[in-house]
Design brief:
Blueprint (H helix, E strand, L loop, with lengths): L1 H9 L15 H13 L3 E3 L3 E4 L15 H7 L13 E6 L16 E3 L3 H11 L3 E7 L3 H16 L4 E7 L2 E3 L2 E2 H4 L5 H6 L4 H9 L7 E3 L1 H19 L9 H11 L5 H12 L5 H15 L17 E3 L12 H15 L3 H13 L2 E6 L2 E6 L3
Parallel strand pairs: 5-6, 7-9
Antiparallel strand pairs: 1-2, 2-3, 3-4, 7-8, 10-12, 11-12
Helix pairs in contact: 2-4, 8-9, 9-12, 10-11, 13-14
Length: 371
């Protein structure tokens, strides 16, 4: 849990004010199910308490489910279920031992998958709140069932807006299905700033599938540093341009169209607009983008006496053997081309000569090891 919030901080994502665990809200879930039971929306089977979706005429409208087509085209294990779309609210603990069980009015068991969200949302956000988020895989089942529970319990559909982020892909496959993962720590190890990844996600609409490549991340890193360079050109910002402000808000409010908002920003920074106004506009956009544009795009050398940065001139370059400078350049080329095996081998050769090489978002830093 701590690692997750460390990563969120690195990505400039604000931590929630309330962090709740389903296992700490079992009573709330039981109470929610009892209301559904009292209103006649449940029935009992051999393995649990189920929600009767036939009681709702518009069940599945969020996903535009064709219930008749679902019945005809999908083979599932019905057991004692009355309808193919009915779902468990409480499951009984039968013969299979479980680590987590709780006593309930229906016997020893555990909550179904969907009830926890409705119960905790009701407790902390009320019967109806503004925005409910989730992945695209939540539309047809999980969110359809949350809405059904809420309609039955408190006569609302929970949220005013339902926003579903589409899957991140690697090599055009969903990360979870590809057998590969993408960790923020891996990006950092390869010399990329976390906010470069944030910029990359802003280049795709949240309802489109972003295909991750190291080349696209490198391009995002360069674009971010260019924006920071524009931002730092003027020390004293001017006034925000009203036309830019209005158009920026129009694009953001058009279903959170961040790619179009970024396109507007690039049109603006490349225009003949005064630099002070450009900075003021960037400062305004930064409130939504969260890219830390005021951070310098250059990384200064520290106190090590023998250091060379690939993107900066250095008076100490002559102190570093030419053969090591060449190895560093070859390794950087290998890294950018994705030849990680060669890059690792070259790193070993550099370190064997008493130097370290640190990957940066737009190059590298070579320095003598500390004694």
């Amino acid at each position: 849990m701590v690692k997750i919030f460390d990563d969120l901080k690195l990505l400039n994502i604000q931590a929630p004010t309330t962090i709740c665990r389903a296992t700490e809200h079992i009573q709330e879930q039981i109470d929610y199910i009892r209301v559904l039971e009292q209103k006649g929306f449940t029935y009992r089977t051999a393995d649990g308490i189920y929600f009767d979706t036939a009681r709702l005429d518009d069940y599945g409208y969020l996903a535009r489910l064709n219930i008749d087509g679902l019945k005809a085209g999908v083979r599932v294990e019905m057991k004692d279920k009355r309808n193919i779309t009915d779902f468990a609210l409480w499951k009984f603990t039968l013969d299979t031992p479980r680590q987590m069980n709780w006593e309930s009015p229906w016997g020893l068991g555990f909550p179904g998958w969907h009830i926890e969200c409705s119960a905790m949302a009701k407790k902390y956000l009320g019967d109806r709140f503004d925005i409910h988020l989730g992945g695209e895989d939540h539309i047809a089942v999980h969110h359809a069932n949350e809405i059904a529970q809420s309609q039955a319990c408190v006569s609302t559909n929970m949220a005013n807006f339902w926003m579903h982020g589409y899957f991140l892909q690697i090599d055009n496959q969903r990360v979870a299905k590809s057998g590969r993962s993408l960790l923020l720590s891996e990006l950092i190890e390869r010399g990329f700033e976390p906010l470069a990844y944030r910029y990359l996600t802003l280049t795709a609409h949240y309802r489109s599938r972003l295909n991750f490549t190291w080349e696209s991340l490198l391009a995002a890193s360069k674009a971010l540093n260019r924006l920071r360079a524009f931002f730092s050109e003027t020390l004293v910002p001017g006034e925000v341009d009203k036309m830019f402000q209005r158009e920026f808000l129009l694009r953001v409010n058009d279903d959170l169209n961040t790619p179009q908002a970024l396109a507007l920003i690039w049109q603006m920074v490349q225009s003949e607009m005064p630099k002070s106004t450009i900075q003021a506009n960037l400062n305004y956009a930064e409130q939504l983008l969260g890219l830390s544009l005021s951070v310098s795009s250059n990384i200064n050398a520290n106190e090590n006496s023998m250091t060379i940065d690939s993107n900066q001139s250095s008076s100490n370059e002559s102190n570093i053997p030419a053969v090591l400078i060449q190895l560093a350049k070859e390794r950087n080329t290998a890294r950018l081309s994705g030849d990680w095996s060669l890059a690792d081998n070259l790193r070993v050769k550099i370190e064997a000569q008493g130097y370290t090489i640190e990957d940066l978002a737009d190059g590298y830093r070579l320095r003598r090891k500390r004694c």
